[in-house]
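Hey Z.,

So I finally got round to the pyridoxal-5'-phosphate thing we talked about over coffee. Here's the setup:
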Amino acid sequence: MTHAFDPTGGKPGQVRFFLPGPVWVRDAVRQAMAHEAIGHRGKAFADLYSRIPPRLAQVFRTTGFVFTTTSAGTGLWEAALLNLMPGRILALASGAFSERWAGCARDLGLAVDVLEAPWGSAIDPADVRRALERGRYDAVTVVHSETSTGTLNDLAAVARTVRESSDAFVLADVVTSVAGSPVECDDWGLDFALTGSQKAFALPPGLGLAFASDRFRARAKDCSKAHYLRLSEAEAFAAKHQTPYTPSTPHLFALDVQLDHILTETVEARWARHDALRRRVAAWAAERGHSYPAPEGARSWTVSCVKPRPGVSAEALVARVKERGFTIGGGYGKWKASTFRIGHMGDVDLASLEALLAALDESAGEAAA
Ligand code: PLP
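And the result:
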């Protein structure tokens, strides 16, 4: 791929860190975090925060409300549920993270039915339609890019199906998709979409980023049982360019810098770069006899979950490539021993990915199963 824009900000070919989050962070972003302290009720903070939502909205592709929290992505799973306090939930599950979101809802005392698809497969919207015809649901939870299996669900089709079949709220985990592959909050009719800073936004971990639709916010005004992550508070303070509670200001300085970087590259070019990276991994895997659990056409653009060819141990491969200076993800949960995962999201460039693939080739001979 020829790309005039240097995503690495001066370190082309030098990225060696390929976890599916947290991801490699550019020098300029790390340096932005070293900004001197400011108070979060003063003018300097309001100036900073006034710049965040309008550009964040461009990445989430919405003209609606976006906000930040000082929390992990999991905090925003809770925020989606506690602000809505839905009646029965239909949780779409096909991997570790979607199962965990269902578990989160159960922990909060909510009624959950799980619509399960085998790990690695994508959720079939026809199954969603049938489930919505059989039962009455107030909300549907869906993970767009299942980081544990490398599967990309057709979020647009799932959301459309929910809209056509019910008036349930569509709560979407776009943790490893937004800013790395197409997510259209407005066009797809999502009600809530959430991510964490340590994924395709390529910031250090610690910040939650989310979108909430008008109807979600209207409902939340009456129903919310959240305190720390109460949406109406976030909205009231956002009007003053503030956050309700003490934010991680260093993260917001970093986000300020990174939003400029993302919009200079352009959101579409960022998607295209991720698309090229995942296609390169797929071509390499096919040449080497490695396979994918996720079906073609339903693979994440930001994380490739690969099953090594017979005779190669995934765990040994992760360890051997680490000795060569490259960090990749092992398999997740019940796939820990049988797969490895390459995170190619954020500001990774193709030359760095090529170096990783060469190191994996060298390592494969030393990683006998
Ligand atoms: N959802 C998905 C799809 C993820 O990949 C992750 C983390 O990897 C999470 C949720 C949880 O995010 P956090 O660790 O920021 O709570």
